[in-house]
Amino acid sequence: MRLLLLGGTGEARELAAAVSERVRVTSSLAGRVSEPKLPVGEVRIGGFGGVDGLVDYLRTQGIDAIVDATHPFARTISEHAALASARTGVPLLLLRRPGWQQPDGADWHWAENTGQAAQRIDELADRAFLTTGRGGLAAFADVRAWLLIRCVEAPEPPLPTAHRILLDRGPYTVDSERELLRRFGIQLLVTKDSGGSHTSAKLEAARTLEIPVLVLARPAPPDVPSVAAVPEAVDWLSSFAG
Fold first, then answer.
1. Which residue from 88, 121, 137, 147 has the fewest beta carbons nearer than 10 Å?
2. Confidence of residue 39 (pLDDT cuts 50, 70, 90)
3. Tens digits of per-residue pLDDT, 144-176?
4. Rounded-to-5 percentages of helix, strand, coil across the chain
5. Is there a contact between 159 and 146 (Cβ–Cβ < 8 Å)?
6. What is the C-alpha R_g of the chain?
7. Alpha carbons 103 and 84: distance in angstroms, whole number
């Protein structure tokens, strides 16, 4: 059995390791990070060339199933996978971790898109910690507040006038996140609803310091079969692999 695993997440790497002995896995990474954490098995890096390119890849490579385990905000590839699956008949499963739930006592605000989030920052704070990644930072270029921007690799302009770039990669601890918020006098945490525990320490740190959180809501997922955890994805693949 040949599996195309659309990856880049911890869940994708976990799934590749779990099924690699009985399934031929090719993990596809977008290539936005120069030194990504690589899964076991075959790896391809870069786009497919739109829906048509993905359809051609599925057919020429004899792919039997697709698991989309990309980041919850990787909207384009998820939409392309759904369309390619419909056109080729190759079964598709969406593996997506649950979103975060607002804890008791936390002060959370929600934004539907990056433009709305940028507008809300100046309403809520003078100093904010922006942890939405380097993609889409142009939407925050006109924010008047001072921004601490954390990302894995240096972002490209345009960037806000008042900012500091912090290059770092998780996972993080609650203590380290709390110290960071204090050191920079942060009044607002801005984040995506990524879910999972990899970067959730900042939420607890903000709650304990009574710092409000502005959460960018997830885009709607495609209408395809989905599971929330790796064991469920393994079970789904077992129905094909035997």
1. 88
2. very high
3. 999 999 999 999 999 999 999 999 988 899 999
4. 35, 20, 45
5. no
6. 19
7. 38
Percent of the chain with pLDDT over 70: 99
d(CA 56, CA 192) in angstroms, rounded, equals 33
What is the rounded CA–CA span in Å between residue 153 and residue 139? Answer: 18
User: Is 94:226 a contact under the CB 8 Å cutoff?
Assistant: yes
Across the chain, mean pLDDT equals 95
The Cα–Cα gap between 124 and 142 comes to 15
Count of residues in the chain: 242
Both tokens of 92, joined, read: 């598709």
Dist CA 230 CA 93 (whole Å): 11
| Cα–Cα distance measured from residue 147 to residue 121, given in angstroms and rounded to the nearest whole number | 10
Rounded CA separation 209/12 (Å): 33
Give the type of residue at 240.
Answer: F
Q: 0.90 cut: is pTM over it? A: yes
